Amino acid sequence: METIVCIVQTEGDGSLAKAALEAVACAKELAAGLTAQFAVGLLGETVQPGADALANCGASAFFAVSGAAFAQARYATDAAAVTALAKAAGATIVLGAATSRLARVMPGAATRLGGVSDASVTAVAAAGGKPVVTRWYYRQRMFAELTRDARPWVVTIAPGCFAAYAGAGGSAAVTGVTPELAAGGARTTVTRIISPSGEQQTIRPDAKLLFVAGAGWTKKQSDGAAHAGEAEKLILNFLNKSKASLGTSKSLIDLSGEGQQVMSFLTHMHQVGQTGATPRHPKGLATCCHGEEPHVVGWRFIGERRAVNLDANCGWAQGKADVLYVADAFKVMAKVIELMG
Ligand SMILES: Cc1cc2nc3c(=O)[nH]c(=O)nc-3n(C[C@H](O)[C@H](O)[C@H](O)COP(=O)(O)OP(=O)(O)OC[C@H]3O[C@@H](n4cnc5c(N)ncnc54)[C@H](O)[C@@H]3O)c2cc1C
Q1: Whose CA is nearest to atom 11 of ligand 1?
Q2: What is the rounded distance in angstroms from the CA atom of residue 299 to the CA atom of residue 229?
């Protein structure tokens, strides 16, 4: 019989972010499939609000590592906390969201527990009473369903793959757990977090739309001149109005390395594709992007794909988009912005 623990990190106010609630939904699903119980292991400075939000989620128990030392991500304290929570729950399967905080410590916790680990799992199932996880390989070109006999099995869940748990809250009884910390284990201190403002931050994982700007925005247009300045204004204007997440192609990113005029707000973090990101959004709109396979492979998890391209034979037309508008993206986006008011 498997015993599952779902590790959830709490936010500064003790609440749970979407990725944590998705991991809880995953734990529920796996527990139901295996006819097993699952516990919740909370990690953060304040944990009671998060535990109360999950009071009716069906968890058999709530364990928590809390206090000022666990307010911020720090490898030594977080790895010790996950290890202690898994031990307290007697877990054979340890689940947690693949957030930047948990993804970097879960494999370490697996080693400390003498177990095994798999990262960025996108689905779970029970087959013949055994847990099975799905992982994508070779930049989302193929997936495998795999199971393991070794325990504990520590698994991180890719965000955006499960509908976030949204049950009614209540009052949860939480058992405190004290992790074993090596001497000096808490010596690393986060002195400050530097992050761009909401307007400057153009990578928005929870946005309904992914807007991709390709290299065509910087190319010579029908008048024989490039209009990168105008392109920049159109793209930023649309992003501000739509709150879409911004992605780009490798070509546009590489142009900066070649000393050409590029858009100041694009970084390597925006690159979508084989050597870039694989974001998850319900819809995607590619503009001035050719839709070549190494780029489109990053669209694997985009629900509905549309593209605007002057070329009726571009990659998007080869079965890669649901809708291709053969049109000038400068004109299309100016009209869209006008219609948005
Ligand atoms: C090993 C490897 C890994 C790679 N990894 C990635 C990756 O991770 N991500 C990635 O993106 N690429 C990747 N590539 C590169 C990829 O193959 C393409 O070269 C790249 O995606 C092309 O970028 P693009 O479509 O923006 O530019 P281009 O190919 O230059 O296309 C520009 C498009 O803009 C259109 N256009 C121009 N003006 C307008 C206008 N006014 N209105 C509408 N359309 C217009 C043109 O018709 C053209 O189709 C990789 C390649 C290799 C070999």
Answers
A1: 249
A2: 27
